[in-house]
Structures are given as structure tokens and as C-alpha cells.
Here is the input.
Amino acid sequence: MEGQHGHGTHYERDKDGILERLRKVEGQVRGIQRMVEEDRYCVDILTQVAAVRAALDKVGLMLLEGHTRGCVVRAIRENHGDAAIQELMDVVQKFIK
Amino acid sequence: MEGQHGHGTHYERDKDGILERLRKVEGQVRGIQRMVEEDRYCVDILTQVAAVRAALDKVGLMLLEGHTRGCVVRAIRENHGDAAIQELMDVVQKFIK
Amino acid sequence: MEGQHGHGTHYERDKDGILERLRKVEGQVRGIQRMVEEDRYCVDILTQVAAVRAALDKVGLMLLEGHTRGCVVRAIRENHGDAAIQELMDVVQKFIK
Amino acid sequence: MEGQHGHGTHYERDKDGILERLRKVEGQVRGIQRMVEEDRYCVDILTQVAAVRAALDKVGLMLLEGHTRGCVVRAIRENHGDAAIQELMDVVQKFIK
Here is the structure.
């Protein structure tokens, strides 16, 4: 049972993993800047951009899972799941588009 | 500095714009790290992640356009466009997936 | 006919809407075939393909919402939400990629 | 050298392959309708929707490649490549979003 903590956080379990991935993404973005500054071959740069995008998607999925397991489950148990699910779907839609 | 080498670069026109966008993306990624550290609401974090993803897609499109107008056009004019187009399609595919 | 089985279905509310959209998608796919047969301009065909893709994403989101409001909520209430959420995340991932 | 035929088609080489894939997509969409009518498990339906989406992306890429190898190359050779590339980028963007 959760619900015991006041609000808790929704991604506690993965917080370190998420931060580590975000720091890696930050480093990759700086790496892309360097590639652009050094006039590296565009296709290599584009490949890196696609890699960062995939890394961000992975972070997004981790956050989504933490949010669902935390906030959404709690909301459902406390009988106000409708709004939580609506919000969840809205944010999923932002990622699918 | 570009311009120096004969073949030019393929995204010259937009190089500054691309670098500026990449620096903004870097700042956004750091902002997301802060949001995670401060246990901000996951949906707000996810919204930011989706925004960074969209910003990266825009950078990707700018690079793609520069590459097409530069390298691909040159390759076609020099009659070795086939390989250049194959490579272009491969990189587009990475973005569509 | 649904309604007959005890557990109901998870997208009851939207079943007609979903079927209607799928029939429209089917018609659009046939329309694209015709465009290809008639050698219509590729960019017009590609625009139609992108439209069908967006229509399918909408159907996917409707199914996802119905599934979450139905099966996932039920699983959480019956204390076996973990597997349901894992499965939900796996299917969301298929759409994000 | 192409350019010899009046307008030609831009995806001639793959026309049959594209039509075959589109007919398969049409059949898959009908299959999804049946799954919905029979109240099949949503996750199975969603998996099929994601498969159709991937099949459409493949068709889109084939059309894109045919268009680039045909119309875009021709436009570049005839020195009006700028508009053709702009149009190409616009349609790529529709797929990336």
C-alpha cells in the first residue's frame, strides 16, 4: 500500500537512473554542438540527434511509468482516477505525436 | 571556421541558428534535471521532455534540409546521387521511427 | 454483442466511434491505392499516408484510454495492478517508437 | 539519365510493391475492425494498430525514396531544385511529427 506518504514522489525508485540519463543527454547535446561547430558530416550529426531523441523517449517512458505507478494508482484508489487518467492520456498523446 | 575548406558545409546558412537551438535544448535538459531533483510534478516534467523532443526534431529537420540542399544536390550534379539518396533515406527513417 | 460477458469490455463507450474511425481508415487506404494506380503526384500520396497515420494514432489513443479506464483500473482495484501497468507501458512504448 | 520520359512516375520501380503493401494494410485494418467487434483484448488490438502504423511508415518511406530519386533529382538537374527540396522537407516533417 502506498497512499501513506503525504504526496511522496512518483518516480522515487528511478530518480537516480533518470537523473543519470538526463546528464548523459545533456552531454550528448553538447557533443552535437561541437560536431556542428567543427563542420562534421551532417549525416553523422543527424545520427547523433536521433540517438538523443531515443534517449529522451526512454526518460519519458521511465517518468510515465513512475507517474502511473505512483500518482495514477493513488488517484484510482482514492476514487478520483478519472481526472488522473485523462491527464495521463493527454501526456501520452504529446509523446505519440 | 568553415568557409576555409573548398567543399563548404552543408548547413552553412543555418549554422548559427542550429547552434543557438542546441544551446537552448541543453538548457532545457538541465532544467528538466532540476525539476526531477526538486520532485516536481511528473506531468509537468513530461511536458518539458516532450518540448525538448520537439525542439530536437526541429534541429533535425534543419540539418536534414541543409544536408539535402548541400551534399545531396552536389552528389546528384556530380552523378553519384544514388548513394547520397540512399543515405538520406536511411537517416530519415531513423527520425520517423 | 458485448454486454453478455460479465467483465464487460474496456472500450465499450467508444466502440462505435472506434469502428467508425477504422472503417474510415480502411476507405482512406483504398483511396491511397487508387492514387498509386493512377500515378498521382507522390507528395499528394504521402500527405494522405501521413493523414491515415494520424487517424490510426487517434484510434490507438482511444483504445489506450478505454483500456486504462477499464482493465487497468480494475486490475489496480483488485491488487494486481503491477502487471497491468507493465503491459500498458509496453504498449505505449510501441506507439512512441 | 532520366528526364527523357514526359513526366514518368516517380515510384515506378516500386509501384507493385507499394500496392501490395497497401492491400495488406487494408486487410490488417479490416482485421482490427473484427477484433474490436469481437471484443478482443485491447492490448492485442493496440499491438495490431502499432503494426499497421509501422507498415504505413514503410510505405511512406518507399514513396519518399521514389519521389526523391524521381521528381527531386529531375528538378535539381533542371535547375529548379529549390522548390522541390522545400516540398520534400515539408512532407518529411509531416512524418516526423
Remarks:
- Chain C touches chain B through one residue (CB under 8 Å).
- Confidence is low (pLDDT under 50) at residues 1-8 of chain C.
- Chain C has three helices and no strands.
- Helices of chain C lie at 15-37, 42-77, 81-96.
